[in-house]
Specification:
Blueprint (H helix, E strand, L loop, with lengths): L1 H21 L2 H21 L1 H7 L4 H32 L1 H6 L1 H29 L2 H21 L12 H11 L8 H24 L3
């Protein structure tokens, strides 16, 4: 039917956009490694000490850094993704596949949170700009390469971007049972890492 055809085309557009974003893992990693390394630079140069000496709470400084370094790339990607889908398929794409579109946003959010949480942890550990940048990239690229080599290993289904690829493929094939743990596990772990960073920054960080 015409409705079924339109739904299939709309679903294809959404998946193609997600494939493009997941394929940008290397670039996304570099962006967040660079942005979070600026926090390490603030610590190493003493600027963070200056900020914390002002009438700002540590929690406020952390949230401000979080908004600038995490939300900016995410909003840009979300905007480009949404605009491209509407521009190519029109609003009908949104209405025909609203659930898949929401799932797509969750997949993107999971990938970005994972990369950012790793970079933020490494930044607060190293506290040096260049060291943070290099260490973050080596870790993220190293994990990605290692997981790709571990074919059919269970761990492959819980570490982005491989687990998200797996979820996306099954969603595109319209399987009745989707591997939700492939999204939930890295999402929860990423949030937990950011929470740990928040506690460390507000309670233990010495500048």
């Amino acid at each position: 039917s015409l409705q079924g055809l339109l739904r299939e085309v709309a679903g294809s557009l959404i998946v193609r956009g997600l494939i493009s974003i997941l394929g940008s893992y290397t670039f996304i990693s570099f962006i967040y490694a660079a942005l979070t390394s600026s926090i390490a630079r603030d610590i190493s140069t003493g600027y963070m000490r200056f900020l914390l000496s002002q009438p700002f709470r540590r929690s406020e400084v952390f949230v401000a850094k979080l908004i600038v370094s995490f939300l900016t790339p995410l909003i840009v990607y979300f905007s480009v993704y949404s605009i491209s889908i509407v521009a190519v398929g029109g609003l009908i794409v949104v209405f025909m596949n609203l659930l898949n579109l929401v799932i797509g946003y969750v997949i993107v959010l999971t990938l970005f949170l994972y990369v950012f949480s790793i970079c933020l942890c490494i930044t607060l550990i190293t506290k040096e700009s260049i060291t943070s940048l290099i260490s973050s990239l080596l870790f993220l690229y190293g994990v990605e390469y290692t997981v790709r080599m571990m074919k059919n290993h269970p761990v492959q289904y819980f570490i982005p971007s491989m687990c998200l690829w797996n979820f996306l493929v099954r969603m595109h094939c319209a399987e009745s049972t989707l591997p939700w743990l492939s999204v939930i596990v890295p999402l929860v772990l990423s949030i937990a890492l950011i929470a740990i960073c928040y506690i460390y920054f507000t309670k233990r960080l010495e500048v």
